[in-house]
């Protein structure tokens, strides 16, 4: 079991790195990540089913350009709905023209009544990552439980999306932490071999 203080220190460092990225660089990075994900899709590395993503919170990389591209390719796209802390996420169909609702943490979510999707591709936000496919999240366990549940029910491809500056030599991990299959930043696409 990792020392909780080590994870907290890593989270503080990762937030500081992410928060230091200039606004114009954020937009350029989001477009570059979109293009890299488009290349993965074109080359057949991503499943054809539903894609799950996220609405950016604070200084997170904005994955919406990549999600819109996946939607244009014919993927149904869902955004998460947060339940109680430590539970798996549910994904509702996202229509950029449809009304959104403020969720549990004030994050925009598709309004109630939108279809529930079961993603076979998940774009995962993170605070930090390492080259072995480990990610550091906010600590509530939503994405670890979601990936565990999706993987238990069949195949899912987990793609961590982040700024290159969020890379760490080694992310502190626990036994319940789920590894990513790919990591995509504005600078590179990393395939994780497990």
Order of helices and strands: HHEHEEEEEEEEHEEE
Spatial strand sequence of the major β-sheet: 6-3-2-1-7-10-11-12
Summed up, the helix count is: 4
Instruction: Give the biggest beta sheet.
Output: 8 strands, mixed
- Category by helix and strand content: alpha/beta
User: Number of DSSP strands?
Assistant: 12
Percent helix among the residues?
A: 25-40%
Shape: globular
Distance between the termini: 20 Å
Radius of gyration: 16 Å
| Strand residue content | 15-25%
**Low-confidence runs of at least 5 consecutive residues:** none
Mean pLDDT: 93
Descriptive notes:
- This protein has helices at 4-19, 23-42, 64-72, 142-152; strands at 51-52, 77-81, 90-93, 100-102, 108-110, 116-117, 121-124, 128-129, 135-136, 157-161, 182-184, 189-191.
- The protein is 29% helix and 20% strand.
- Helix 2 packs parallel to helix 3.
- The strands form 3 sheets. Strands 6-3-2-1-7-10-11-12 form an 8-stranded mixed sheet, with helices on both faces.
- The protein is an alpha/beta fold and 194 residues long.
- The mean pLDDT is 93.
- The protein has 4 helices and 12 strands.
């Amino acid at each position: 079991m990792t020392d909780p203080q080590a994870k907290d220190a890593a989270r503080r460092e990762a937030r500081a790195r992410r928060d230091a990225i200039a606004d114009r660089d954020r937009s350029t990075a989001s477009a570059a990540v979109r293009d890299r994900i488009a290349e993965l899709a074109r080359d057949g590395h991503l499943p054809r089913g539903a894609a799950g993503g996220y609405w950016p919170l604070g200084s997170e990389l904005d994955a919406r350009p990549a999600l819109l591209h996946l939607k244009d390719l014919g993927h149904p796209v869902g955004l998460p709905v947060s339940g109680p802390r430590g539970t798996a996420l549910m994904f509702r169909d996202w229509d950029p023209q449809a009304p959104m609702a403020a969720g549990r943490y004030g994050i925009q979510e598709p309004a109630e009544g939108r279809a529930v999707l079961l993603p076979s591709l998940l774009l995962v936000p993170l605070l930090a990552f390492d080259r072995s496919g480990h990610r550091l999240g906010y600590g509530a366990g939503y994405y670890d439980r979601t990936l565990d549940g999706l993987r238990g029910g069949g195949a899912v491809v987990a793609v961590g999306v982040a700024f290159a500056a969020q890379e760490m030599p080694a992310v502190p991990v626990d036994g319940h932490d789920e590894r990513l299959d790919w990591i995509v930043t504005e600078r590179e696409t990393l395939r994780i071999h497990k």
